[in-house]
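From the pipeline queue, job 12 of 40. The input is one protein chain; the requested action is below.

Action: predict structure.
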Amino acid sequence: MRNLRLFAATLLLSVFSFQFSTSFACTNFLVGKEASVDGSTIISYAADSYGMYGFLHFSPAQDWPEGAMREVKDWDTGRPQGFIPQPAHTYKVVGNMNEHQVTIGETTWGGREELWDTVGIDYGSLIYIALERSKTAREAIECMVSLVNEYGYASEGESFSIGDPNEVWIMDLIGKGKGQKGANWVAVRIPDNAISAHANQARITKLPTDKVPCTKEQKRLQKKLNCVCRGDWMWSKDLIAFAREKGYFTGEDKDFSFQAAYNPFDFSGLFVCEARVWSFFRHFSSEMDKYFDYATGATFRESKGQNEGEHMPLWIIPERKVSVQDVKECMRDEYRGTPIDITEGLDAGPWNSKLRYGGLGFKLKDEQDTTQVTQYWYSRPTATQQTAWSFVAQMRKPYIVNGQTVNPNGIFWFGVDDAACSCYVPMYSCINRVPECFAEGNGDSYTYSPTSAWWTFNIVANWAYTKYSRMYPHIRDLQSVWDDKFNTQIAGVDAQAAELSEEDARAFLTNYSCAQAENLVADWQKLGIYLMTKFLDGQERKEENGDFKRNPYGHSCGPNRLPLPEPFLRKVAVDVVHE
């Protein structure tokens, strides 16, 4: 690895253009059932967007009369998009998991701007409509493509993670331009013994060329969706022809790459996006260092955009089984211990803050040649301050206990704000309501609510950013207490639920999920008060036997006035008056 803290890409604006209109938001990790510790499939997702409020979505199962219509509103802006017919029945949805444990996440990558549209169904609405109507991941893909074919696609390029207890899929999708229905898309099932990830960059490259006999179901899908089905792959029938027509691709079909045609790399697509995938993979494979220069854009930069380096695979086989707790920790990743550690460097300040002002980077004009502009990028880890909410979805298959088959509910591990400073609470897929602290109407990003989990976790995290290396260990300690508690409790909670009727089990699991969320928020509020008291005015209050230290007369003792770390003092000494 190269000893790097901040990459600089010197770009002539007349040569290079940036393809993203988003804030490089969202990260997804995927784990196949044979790659996980307990046989579950796992999907994670962070909803990262400045200004977004973090709440837990909930829609109950419902029967609909003939002629009922569903309003579609753009998920990001709330803009009305129109109405579509409701089916006879829609399923319960808790967050991004429905009652059948179908789960969907996403990351936006933008891609070819001329293919964007504002008319049709946006990516967020596709997710929640598909969750309301699908019993399996394959049904969800069919639903999403059918909707786009009929109504059009009203978003930028997008990657979707789509899973159920048996399989997980990645689907890359982008529209066909203003006024055009349908989409250019490809979906592939991740092997059961593999893990994968995507982070605001299309990752599916070449399509399979081997001829595979179609099943009766695949023939049905090919006809209905106007697509190609080949084994565990599906893609829009005119995917390559459309790219050829637009001039995105000129080679032979066997050399076609979806990513290269519809979301070609720039420096940021590597350093800001692919690096997060690299960091996830490195936790489970000792072979990932060889991809560092590729994933961080070093090869791309040094070749002036002519060579990206050796691409990472779409999936890898992990060297050990992956647990739900492993995925939680990966969602908390800040690149610690790597050359792009967000908590290191001058820009992290004296106390190793991850907070960067002004976004992901900045531009500076050359002082002599003002036509030349240097774009500087901060590293962008998975755990970031602008996260509104995130989840780790655990989709579980039936298992045997004492000779009895148990059909467990899925667990939607849900947290708000920066995952590094947050905690995931188990929300069962069958629950009848969500906790007040996670409820949609309990405040918003402009309206403070003392009972809102999002506000509570934001207050603690934002205070901690001011002296991160000193405060974060306290957050981490409480985080570990709750992680251990939940991980220990789940087996017992499952066993109790298995002894109850379906209705009573739903009530029991609802009460459990809601109570744990409220208890966690109460603990985090206490943590916030403790951190405010201990680190008031930039100092550190002394402690003794677990309490703040007082003198023999009951008065507070003076605080510890810790100096700035010496390496930082040496950097600032040049601007400070000395004797």
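Job complete. Residues 330 and 566 are 31 Å apart (CA to CA).
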